[in-house]
Amino acid sequence: MSVRQMVSGFARGVRSLSTTGIRAAASNDVVPGDSKARDTGVTGRIPDEDEQSTGIERKELNKMLEGVEDPFGMSMEPKFAARGTRDAPRMIPSHFDSRLVGICDEGSEAIHYFELKSGDAMYVHGEYFQLYTVTDDVHP
Question: Which residues lie across from 98 on neighbouring strands?
Fold first, then answer.
């Protein structure tokens, strides 16, 4: 089979599929599994991200539409804050009972990692840290 014959056969198949899709989209007949049966979704065109996304992706897109550039707090930029004290420790969010935290010494590129567990504040490298539990899927 030559390349010309393969391209011709492919073009016929695409033409057949596209005309069938146009006919189905234009008709008022309800096709099993079609969104017209449930009066939801879109028919006759490819849905965009907002219409097709579900779950955590939908939450991410909604946060980004609200103007939050980093909905999951995943940016690698350092987060500067006041040093944690015994009375006002640095509050670290987590979905679990523990979290791995990394801190840099001032004037150094070395990162010191430690496991922060829920409960009382923990004293590490001159400041206090405390874990708190979050239940939402997306951070503000």
Answer: 117
